[in-house]
Amino acid sequence: AVLQIILNHIDHQMPLDESVSNPRIHYENGLLSIEPGYDEAACHALLDEFPEQQQWKRKNLFFGGAHSVILKTNGMLEGSGDERRGGVWRRLFN
User: N or C: which end of the chain has fewer CB within 10 A?
Assistant: First the structure.
């Protein structure tokens, strides 16, 4: 989960909240598990390499829950709570 969030935010320049809430994938013991909303064309392209795929019906903590906070260049904090873990983000100070 953490790596996918970092890649989404830095490499794909997604806003932090979108990076955290974006659908995730997980590979273990020959099975590729996929959250709903993951790009359908990407899933199809992965079939040759990962023929065993499980499509989940909703987002789940199985894919990890990662609350995230970054320090922006202007000195402000930005955060995002992961819905998979019931998270919220609140700034309590400036």
Answer: C
pTM: 0.84
Element (H, E) at 65: none
Q: Which of 71, 80, 73 is nearest to 2 (CA)?
A: 80
Q: State pLDDT tens for residues 2-59.
A: 999 999 999 999 999 999 999 999 999 999 999 999 988 999 999 989 999 999 999 9
Nearest to 24 by CA among 56, 49, 47: 56
13: enclosing H helix or E strand: none
Question: What is the pLDDT, as a whole number, of residue 26?
Answer: 96
Beta strands 25-28; 53-55: pairing state: unpaired
Token pair, residue 80, equals 């995002």
Radius of gyration of the chain (CA): 15
34 DSSP β-pair partners: 25, 55
For the record, the structure tokens of 59 come out as 């987002």
